[in-house]
Amino acid sequence: MASAMLSTASAAPSASISMNNALKAKVKLGIGSLNSCFPNTKSFGRISMTVAVNVSRFEGITMAPPDPILGVSEAFKADNDETKLNLGVGAYRTEELQPYVLNVVKKAEKLMLEKGENKEYLPIEGLAAFNKVTAELLFGADGPVIKQQKVATVQGLSGTGSLRLAAALIERYFPGAKVLISSPSWGNHKNIFNDARVPWSEYRYYDPKTVGLDFEGMIADIKAAPEGSFILLHGCAHNPTGIDPTPEHWEKIADVIQEKNHIPFFDVAYQGFASGSLDADAASVRLFAERGMELLVAQSYSKNLGLYAERIGAINVVCSSADTAARVKSQLKRLARPMYSNPPIHGARIVANVVGDPTLFNEWKAEMEMMAGRIKNVRQKLYDSLTAKDNSGKDWSFILEQIGMFSFTGLSKSQSDNMTNKWHVYMTKDGRISLAGLSLAKCEYLADAIIDSYHNVS
Ligand SMILES: Cc1ncc(COP(=O)(O)O)c(C=O)c1O
């Protein structure tokens, strides 16, 4: 037990208070605070006292707000209503709304167990067999950049960790360069560049009037960006809008980026999961690579192989020569070493086994088509339910035009709040719903909730 030490300038009231001795902090108190601590104490003019109090050194740390996406799942868990629906997090669920482990993943794991593989450290750049197949999956095994060894590939901690590594590279080797992020974008993009101390601004992307792409705005903002900016693009299945540029749009975007000497920076978190085809979903990246442009691509296997918790992905930097790629790779490794030393092995082995084995690879493609197909079916059923139930004449066809896991409903924050508070439908406050968390059986209920929120809440 520690006692409080009091000292006064004129008279000295003696006081002693019991305290936990975990930590002593010296606090200077004036008359007001003295009287509030000791209400029976008289004032003795100017008093200064030093008090040892039980204050944590972390006292100045305020409570962080819940994560806008992962916080939705926490709120969902706390809701006891039977009708509740979690459309917040972008994770695939079965028609019974259960998490799904792909059969090819189970088979690859069985194979790994049978081989009795060890758990030795990976090199900083990750598993060589993984790095090879992941770059080939992205650019095509026969892609010129692969053949000419122009790609620096480093295994990353899924999409997020790969983006973060790229952000560190930008911060170190392109000081002051700006990253342009679509408005809106996946919420974590801004956090990643903020934490890496990379300046960013936004380019127009979404047009609320059409619930479609603001292509003119996008082009104008990319043109207006300082020369040599990094333009962050979603390779396919734009999150949160589900609105992708057309192939003609991509050509024009590449033209403007080339004109302005910008560096394209792709985030590919949904390859194969958007259309069901790995090649179709990589078309945007390949178009830029085939133009001979230098570019960055962050990859994730969270969604397309359902390896959310394995944290497996990669950062690929396409360079103008093999020699440059080798130097860039060495610097990526240098950045990774003090951050996390080297990446985890389990997910890397799964991907290497699945992609590297023709039978498992074909099975994976079939499973991905099945998952993408289920999402397309609920998308269609949701649209059908909305048009059948809503007599206002509102056009809901934008839902069918969107692609991938998400639908951007166009609901405002207060309308989204109504979805949660009244209907127990959990979603992000920007009006995004994850169709991967929806079943055919729940489409009508969801349509009722959307119609009520859209028409009855301003
Ligand atoms: C656009 C986008 N990029 C990256 C990620 C990163 O995901 P992960 O870190 O799980 O690979 C996500 C996940 O939702 C995403 O939507």
Please describe what this structure looks like.
- Keywords: Aminotransferase, Pyridoxal phosphate, Transferase.
- It comes from Tripterygium wilfordii (Thunder God vine).
- This is Aspartate aminotransferase.
- This protein is α/β, with parallel strands linked by helices.
- It has two domains: 69-101 and 365-456, Aspartate Aminotransferase, domain 1, CATH 3.90.1150.10; 121-356, Aspartate Aminotransferase, domain 2.
- The chain is built from 17 helices and 15 strands.
- The protein has helices at residues 31-37, 70-78, 103-115, 128-139, 144-147, 158-173, 188-195, 215-224, 247-259, 278-281, 283-290, 322-340, 346-356, 358-389, 398-401, 413-421, 443-456; strands spanning 25-29, 49-53, 85-86, 151-157, 179-183, 200-204, 206-207, 212-213, 230-234, 263-268, 295-300, 312-318, 406-408, 425-426, 432-434.
- A hairpin with a 4-residue loop joins strand 7 and strand 8 (212-213).
- Helix 6 (158-173) packs across helix 12.
- Bound molecules: pyridoxal-5'-phosphate (PLP).
